[in-house]
Amino acid sequence: MAKIFSMQPLVHLAHQKNDDATRKFGQLIQQQQAAQAKLHTLEQYREDYQTRLQQAVRNGIDQTSLRNFQDFIRRLNEAVAQQRNAIEQMHHLMQAGRNELANTQRNMKSFDTLAQRHLESEKKLEGKIEQRQQDEHTGRHSALRARAAQDEI
């Protein structure tokens, strides 16, 4: 009977850690996509407001409205800059998540390799035991036939 692999709990733990890292990395990807979409929306919104400002200036605009447009566009520029910073930070988090996932995958593969080697070793041992038992059985059977043949003589 095969011995239980003593490191099986570590194999299981490595798989759990890899699953967790995979899940976290997937969440980071979703967060990055949302941040990119937000940046795109802000940039589009800013572009639309700049176009509206240019049209208003061509059509004639009072000082108060001009100042309001400029203030709003300035705030949009600040929001775009903040979102770009958030995306830069997300980039660093993504790299860390990618590294963590690679490490957990490497650990998991190492433990899987050890488990596979253990299984192969146990199979070889079982094969040797079965062969020995088969040889003993064949030897006994041959001895019985030889004895029976001698008894007939």
Summarize the structure.
The chain has 153 residues and is mainly alpha-helical.
Sheet bearing the most strands, described? none
Portion in beta strands: under 5%
Structural class: mainly alpha
Q: Per the principal axes of the C-alpha atoms, what is the gross shape?
A: rod-shaped
Mean pLDDT: 90
Note the total helix count: 2
> What is the CATH T-level topology?
Helix Hairpins
The ordered H/E elements are HH
Low-confidence stretches: none
Oligomer: single chain
CATH class: Mainly Alpha
Distance between the termini: 44 Å
Rg is 37 Å
DSSP E strands, number: 0
Could you explain the architecture of this structure?
This protein has 2 helices and no strands. It is mostly helical. The protein has a single domain (8-120), classed as Helix Hairpins (Orthogonal Bundle). The longest helix is centred in the C-terminal third of the chain and has 90 residues, at 63-152. It is rod-shaped.
Provide key terms for this protein.
rod-shaped, Helix Hairpins, single chain, 153 residues, mainly alpha
Write the layout of secondary structure elements.
Blueprint: H1 8-59, H2 63-152
Helix pairs in contact: 1-2
